[in-house]
């Protein structure tokens, strides 16, 4: 495996398929998520090396909800599923990633336990992923920003006055 490749594990639960990115994740990139959801639905749950968890839900080629589960200021989108609020209603002892998995499990009607994710899975190695292409903005794939937000990049920390 090289620095530019990505290692993926794939499986299914009920009528849903899933993919676990073991190294060099790419699935949270807008271009990948847009293609994955197509005319259907897709979730992306990512956790950075700095323990920042990001949740994305896309439907019919459109990013409908995006946020960091522990930060209400990051909520973007107009999904009527209110995934952020569902995660907030979980026990405060539940990690952001586990609460997100529980909410996704409830939504799809099939459990996604860590044992399934850590179990034997079909594995693929994607060689030489073009990360510059993945970083480019995808037209029409950004959720609406809350009023007063100037950009979908970064976090709005306040106004300097």
Detailed description of the structure:
The chain is of the alpha+beta class. The chain is 23% helix and 30% strand. The strands form 2 sheets. It has a 4-stranded antiparallel beta sheet, sandwiched between helices. It has a 3-stranded antiparallel beta sheet with strand order 2-1-7, with no helix packed on it. The mean pLDDT is 82.
Uncertain regions: pLDDT < 50 for 5+ in a row?
none
- Please, how many helices? 5
Task: Let me know the number of strands.
Answer: 7
CA radius of gyration is 16 Å
- Biggest β-sheet, characterized? 4 strands, antiparallel
Q: What is the straight-line distance between the termini?
A: 50 Å
Percent range for helical residues? 10-25%
Categorize the overall geometry.
globular
Proportion of residues in β-strands: 25-35%
Q: Order of strands across the widest beta sheet? A: 3-4-5-6
Mean pLDDT: 82
Structural class: alpha+beta
Secondary-structure element pattern, one letter each: EEHEEEEHHHEH
Annotation keywords:
single chain, 161 residues, alpha+beta, four-stranded antiparallel sheet, three-stranded antiparallel sheet, 7 strands, 23% helix
């Amino acid at each position: 495996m090289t620095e530019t490749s990505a290692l993926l594990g794939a499986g299914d639960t009920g009528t849903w398929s899933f993919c676990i990115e073991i190294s060099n994740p790419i699935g949270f990139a807008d271009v990948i998520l847009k293609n994955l959801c197509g005319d259907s639905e897709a979730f992306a749950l990512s956790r950075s090396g700095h323990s920042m968890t990001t949740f994305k839900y896309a439907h019919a080629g459109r990013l409908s909800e995006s946020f960091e589960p522990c930060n209400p200021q990051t909520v973007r989108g107009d999904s009527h599923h209110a995934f952020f609020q569902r995660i907030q209603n979980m026990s405060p002892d539940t990690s952001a990633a586990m609460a997100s998995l529980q909410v996704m499990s409830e939504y799809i009607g099939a459990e996604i336990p860590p044992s399934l994710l850590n179990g034997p899975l079909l594995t693929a190695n994607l060689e030489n992923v073009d990360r510059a292409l993945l970083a480019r903005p995808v037209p029409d794939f950004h959720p609406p920003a809350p009023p007063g937000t100037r950009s979908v990049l970064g976090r709005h920390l306040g106004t300097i006055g």
